[in-house]
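hey so u asked for the seq, here:
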Amino acid sequence: MDKKQMMERAEILVGAVDDLPTIPVVATQVIQMLDDQNVSVEEIADLMLTDQVMTARVMKLINSPIYRPTNEITSLKRALVYLGLRHIRELALTTSVISAFDADSGAIELNSFWEHSFGVGMVSKIIAKKVGYEDLEKAYIAGIIHDLGEVFLSNYMREPFQEVLDRIKNHPIRLVDAEAEMLGTTHCEIGLCIARKWNFPDVYCEVISCHHKPGEAEIDPVLCAIVNLSDLFCTVRELNYSGRQWISFNLGEEEAWNILKNESPALAKLDVERFCYELDDAIPDVKELVSSIFNANEQVKS
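ran it, structure tokens below
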């Protein structure tokens, strides 16, 4: 089945869901306000404070190992100044995705899913830094949202998706290939449909669509390659939500690795074993971060 047919199948499946989550109103307003070059931090903060859950999650992210402030930030306005208006849009986007799919009733355990997603985000940021990618936060956000389609499949196609998960536990087949074979589409096409409905920037739509085939990317193949490798690294470590204990990969044979080596030849000298140890060290931080985000209902100072 080709990409066009899988996209058509995905559009049918997503279109058939009447109660598909939407981006929270406040987040949409924040993203729109940021199009105004004259908007102030105070205006953004005042609007964000009307959504306490989103605000609390933003604060958790700001104080997480991702951004590593010197001292804990307890004021939203200070947090936004620290972050900078340039990256508020991306943080609002992240917290919105989390809010849209926060019901733990699907085929996959939600905390494990987000641990994987945030793990890929953190590793993407590390790899991006190693290859000299200019926007580390973009790499981080792309890593977090890359598997957006999986949550849809887990929640809205629970039984057939559970059959896919059961199959890959016992057979050496990639999740994306099992989805194509058993569902007629994959989480890549499903995620792309949702991202378009939510008006995600084109570069993020491409990552969602091409993170398993970065060579097909046209807007930013380097970003897609970063997320692809991050996904592989997390899958073979403890940040893996679908039970694929058998999976492994040879870095030198990966398309994404060749894309990144062209971008940064110094990568050829990367100590992969040491890099994996670095990832292991980050796992507790990821799990703590995800746990805190899903309990982020406390009041926040303005």
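Residues 174 and 299 are 43 Å apart (CA to CA). The chain has a mean pLDDT of 85.
lmk if thats what u needed
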